[in-house]
User: What shape does this take?
Amino acid sequence: MSDLTISLPDGSSRTLPEGATGADLAADIGPGLAKAALIVTVDGEGRDLDRALDAGAAVSIVTADSDEGLHTLRHSTAHVLAQAVLDLWPGATHAIGPPIEHGFYYDFELPDGGVFSADDLEAIEARMREIIASDQAFERHEAGAAEALELFADHCYKREIIEKVTAGDADAEMAGEAGADGTVTYYRNGDGFVDLCTGPHVPSTGRLGHFALQKVAGAYWRGDEKQPMLQRIYGTAWGDKKALKAHLHRLAEAEKRDHRRLAAEMDLVSWPDALGPGLAVWHPKGALVRKLIEDYSRHRHETGGYDFVYSPHIAKSVLWETSGHLDFYADGMYPPMELDGATYYPKPMNCPFHVSIFQSGQRSYRDLPRRLFELGAVYRYELSGAVHGLLRSRGFTQDDSHIFCTPDQVPDELASLLEFTLSVLRAFGFDDFQAKLSTRPTEKSVGEDALWDLATDGLRSALESAGLDYVVDEGGGAFYGPKIDVDVTDAIGRPWQLSTIQLDFNLPERFELEYVGADGGRHRPVMIHRALMGSIERFFGVLLEHYAGAFPVWLAPEQVRVLPVADEHQAYAESVRDALVADGRRATVDPADEPLGKRVRAAKVAKVPHVLVVGDDDAANGTVGDNARGADGPERDLPLDDFLGRLAAAVESGALVAGPAGHPAEKLAEGRAS
RNA sequence: GCCCGGGUAGCUCAGUUGGUCAGAGCAGGCGCCUUGUAAGCGUCAGGUCGUCGGUUCGAAUCCGACCCCGGGCUCCA
Assistant: This one.
């Protein structure tokens, strides 16, 4: 009997008896690894531990420490979920059950249109634990189409997959379920549970167990609303108890940060039923923060080479016919209004208006690039089920700009635009970015090849010179141009897509835009759509969650609350407040009609950055006691002037850039000069 | 829009099988307390139990429709 030699990720190689499996290899390396091993990869392909290795292959042992290991673990847990459901609901059928980020789901159809209730999860989870405790092996099998169809005779969704796959037209979605060579693989465990699956799986159900079922949801088969609605169960699964616990803790933290909860608690924004879904009103404190955000945005655009414009909220249908929105975006638009024999639509986008401004006169290449900026409110008819607080609403305000430039100017414009974008986002405390470059779709698209290449290369080099991590979504661009999307990662690691920089080769054509070039001839400009925050409302919601409501000093609606120890300190407290207000701060006094501890607590709960306590000593010496958010404890006997200076510095560094009149940083400068 | 789950005081929630079940805590008003760093005491007020209709001697509770909210699907800033 000959041996086989394989290579390991560290470059070493190992020789094992012929027919050795992944499990043999792990055991050969060490008992700890043997215990932790879930699957192996052989030349990059995942494979069950009990399958023989190939001589000469590059083999890697996969454990729950890696994404691939977790993926396998979750996938196997999804199988156990399906097994439990099929046990408990005779006649139920299972559709698909893939691993997803942090967990897995499985879609089912219950007999007679039955549905799961939240209570069912408990019973299902208990059955799953029994299956796991009985440590059933996952056995891999292969079958031809006919055999597989017989095996899954009672499972119409599995049959549909088998038919699709064995017919050889496997698409990406189906590729995860079966091979495309006329045979399919399936896994069997326990008494009779079988599932169509390419695997790999953990060796046996006993390797699972750190999971939790989370929720029930409806989901269309293949995500298509014309297909039947299936019952989906979501769960999460991890390699050990600690990781599961940590994940559940993160979810709880995220819930505490929910901007809808914070918006109500902090009296920032509300959604009165009478307004309709996705339509918010801004209360004074929320409006104040929003105004600071908008003021900062305006300031940056003023000094960044942009021209400010305004446009109406509605326009006649001809504008939307020319722009093409009525052709490809009608579903997202509010319905039309008929008046004076004309048809008007609320605007879902600002671009046609900005194009109209560009069109209003003859443009020379000397005028370009022309950057038109507007905090433009738009209305989109989002599906009622899609509306989600400020993060997805039906009326929102874009920090929108349309840049018109010559093709030659495109690369430089994109590079400076991306830098500008990142700089604005950094000012709000975001410093972890992930970008996506979306290139020309393979199907129909408009624009010359040279233009696409110029723009795509321009976007790529902008990303590279900005030193930004990015992924390429090949063919993911719109039909009218390539784009960059920028995600930020928030304080608890969640990504949010905020910025988008989008080339448009279509609208200039549709509106027949022209400029006069140096050669005296007429040329078509290139148009760039871009939004940095995306939507002000959404950006506000993301910021609120990022900071968990504890806005940095320059954005905090109430920056300082002054608490007199007793009534006799009221006058001094008011003088402290007046000094703060004169210095441009937002400060209030909370009089001594409640015990100090209670007032301190109220201020802390309200997330006021600085709570000042003033008593006899302070009134006598012109000092304050500063209980700052995040500090270990109060700092007593701080001279008022020192506090004013310290706060001013914090406001200035928070804003990063000197602001316009009305911006905290500007008042700071005035305050210091005087 | 579709599936599931919810709407009880400003907020968070109790209200077993339909019959003093319209309640609690916090918040709010008033009074007392005069406080040195995360909840002092007392007292008062508040709700057409999402809306409309139905079943019943009787409905927060059962049924139907609708509205709104939440989680998904889909979509997306």
